[in-house]
Amino acid sequence: MGESRNHPVAGVDLACCEECLAGGVDGVILRICASCGHVGCAEGSPNDHAAEHYAETDHPIATVIGSERMSGWSYPDARPV
Ligand SMILES: [Zn+2]
Ligand SMILES: [Zn+2]
User: Fold this and answer.
1) Which of 3, 17, 53, 57 lies in the 20 to 30 Å Cα band around 23?
2) pLDDT for 27 beyond 50
3) Helix (H) or strand (E) holding 63
4) What pLDDT is recorded for position 15?
5) Coil, helix or strand for 33?
6) What's the gap in Å between 59 CA and the centre of ligand 1?
7) DSSP H stretches of helix in the chain
């Protein structure tokens, strides 16, 4: 999981976690990184790639997408923002 990810934000498909799709998992809650636009799964995902992205990059804020209420999450504070 140390490979570089240089996908342009404009090209990100907001409907999926790339890493989960690669592993055949779909339909999870997603968060998009406020710092770089990385999309990762969270909240009940077996893989939790959004948290993994924070661990790798120290990008602190991610916003939940794919739900009616877009809410931010602060990883350092472990609370909504
Ligand atoms: Zn994932
Ligand atoms: Zn990021």
Assistant:
1) 57
2) yes
3) strand 61-65
4) 56
5) strand
6) 17
7) 18-23, 49-57
